[in-house]
Specification:
By secondary structure, the protein is of the alpha+beta class. It contains five helices and seven strands. The chain has one domain: OB fold (Dihydrolipoamide Acetyltransferase, E2P) (Beta Barrel), CATH 2.40.50.90. It is 39% helix and 20% strand. Helix 4 runs parallel beside helix 5. The two termini are 25 Å apart. About 5% of the residues have low confidence.
């Protein structure tokens, strides 16, 4: 499995590089994670708030947004604890790290309606943070918009569900 993930990451980097050379994708950016709001929103020096593309984390407080998690079969009782677990995971593993931001070719806008930069975030070891959070069951796939990595992200979410991790705990 680790070899398959490595091959997938290499293929993604190759595609991103080819698209950038062709002028189809913006160049990658780098910066240091200075703040963690939750598992899907970070502050990155020189770039401001960044929303991790293609994923959605539970909110700190209950709201009508909980319904999208519940419709997927996630128990309401898991939402607040997993919010805290996702925040703690990012604080331990991401805060202070120098990361690389890349962008999706399907997205016309680089920022969401709240002004946050929309990006895939790669850790210094080359792993994709967005996917790692899915693998841990700390987030779900954001299904509203198409993204290049949606099928891969759905596979990671399904694997976390089968393993009963995080949001998918029984």
């Amino acid at each position: 499995m680790p070899r398959a993930i490595g091959l997938l990451l290499a293929a993604c980097w190759l595609l991103i590089g080819q698209a950038a050379l062709a002028g189809d994708a913006p160049a990658a950016l780098t910066g240091t994670v200075t703040w963690v709001y939750d598992a899907d929103t970070l502050e990155i020096a020189s770039h401001g708030k960044v929303r991790l593309l293609g994923i959605d984390a539970p909110e700190k407080a209950g709201s009508d947004r909980d319904e999208k998690f519940i419709k997927l079969g996630i128990a309401r009782k898991h939402l607040r604890p997993v919010h805290g677990a996702g925040l703690a995971w990012c604080l331990r593993n991401v805060k202070g790290q120098q990361v690389t931001l890349t962008f999706d070719t399907t997205q016309k806008e680089r920022r969401d309606r709240h002004g946050r930069l929309l990006a895939y975030i790669y850790l210094p070891d080359g792993r994709l943070l967005n996917r790692l959070l899915l693998e841990q069951g700390l987030v779900i796939v954001y299904r509203r918009f198409p993204i290049d990595l949606k099928q891969d992200f759905l596979s990671a979410e399904t694997e976390a569900k089968h393993r009963g991790l995080g949001l998918w705990a029984r």
